[in-house]
Amino acid sequence: MSSIVLFGPPGAGKGTQAERIEKSTGLPQISTGDMLRAAIAKGTDVGLEAKSYMDAGMLVPDDVIVALIKARLMEDDARNGVMFDGFPRTVVQAEALEKIAEISHVISIIVPDERIVERICGRFTCSGCGSVYHDTFKPTKVEGKCDHCGSEDFGRRSDDNEATVINRLSAYHSQTSPLADWYRQRGVLREVDGDREINQITTDILQTLEK
Ligand code: ADP
Ligand code: ADP
Ligand code: ZN
């Protein structure tokens, strides 16, 4: 079984869709952003190196990211394919990935820049299970209680502020968006309109994956 990539700007809804697609397909989500935040929380060398880049809204160096991914793909649950979320983000990363995994679909979630700041600045996450919410667009059903695990503890990312988002968007446009053409040339790019209701986007992605 081959792997898929969820591709798009920060705040496009990659993590939100990954939760749902993981449930339907069984492909485990591999989020480099989540892995880096875990490394920072643990205080590892990787975490120490990554933190200043992340705080500034810049990409973490490719060699750090590729080493993380290689180690992650050795784990048991990755044997039957995975779903990459937020990786690859540069052509160098995509070239490294090409050598270690087969990618059948790159789902590009298209969201205009003017939507991104409002999405990111309203984002919060359940500390219990990692579910992603939004103050306006995806509040919890019961206020202050996670829909999935019942936890009452939530977190916001320190880089989810307007100043950092501007830098993350600019890194996306200069370093990451060229990858869309790179994958289009390889015949695996599938574009979905990400400026719609969350469930509609999920339905679209699942249909695209069946083709
Ligand atoms: P990414 O992983 O691409 O950075 P997220 O999945 O974390 O994006 O989504 C960013 C924010 O936007 C979250 O607060 C999420 O709840 C919200 N969001 C995701 N998809 C949509 C959508 N289709 N419409 C409105 N808000 C959305
Ligand atoms: P978002 O949900 O906004 O897309 P992520 O959680 O994917 O953000 O990433 C947060 C930060 O982690 C990025 O701004 C970047 O500094 C770093 N990062 C995550 N994945 C990568 C990657 N594949 N290459 C380089 N840096 C990365
Ligand atoms: Zn939860």
Question: What does the model show?
Answer:
Helices cover 48% and strands 16% of the residues. It is built from 9 helices and 8 strands. The model has no long low-confidence stretch (mean pLDDT 96). It has helices spanning 14-25, 32-42, 45-56, 62-73, 91-100, 113-121, 162-176, 178-185, 198-210, and strands spanning 3-7, 29-31, 83-85, 103-110, 123-126, 132-134, 154-155, 189-193. The strands form 2 sheets. A 5-stranded parallel β-sheet has the order 2-3-1-4-8, with helices on both faces. Strands 6-5-7 form a 3-stranded antiparallel β-sheet. Helix 1 (14-25) crosses helix 9, helix 2 crosses helix 3 (45-56) and helix 6 packs across helix 7. The protein has 211 residues and is α/β, with parallel strands linked by helices. The longest helix has 15 residues, at 162-176. The chain is globular. The protein has a domain at 3-112 and 177-210: Rossmann fold. It binds adenosine-5'-diphosphate (ADP) (2 copies) and zinc ion. Zinc ion binds next to loops.
Q: Main traits of this protein?
A:
binds adenosine-5'-diphosphate, 211 residues, 9 helices, 5-stranded parallel sheet, 3-stranded antiparallel sheet
Distance between the termini: 15 Å
Major β-sheet strand ordering: 2-3-1-4-8
Nearest-integer average pLDDT: 96
Tally the beta strands: 8
Q: What is the CATH top level name of the domain at 3-112 and 177-210?
A: Alpha Beta
Q: Helix fraction?
A: 40-55%
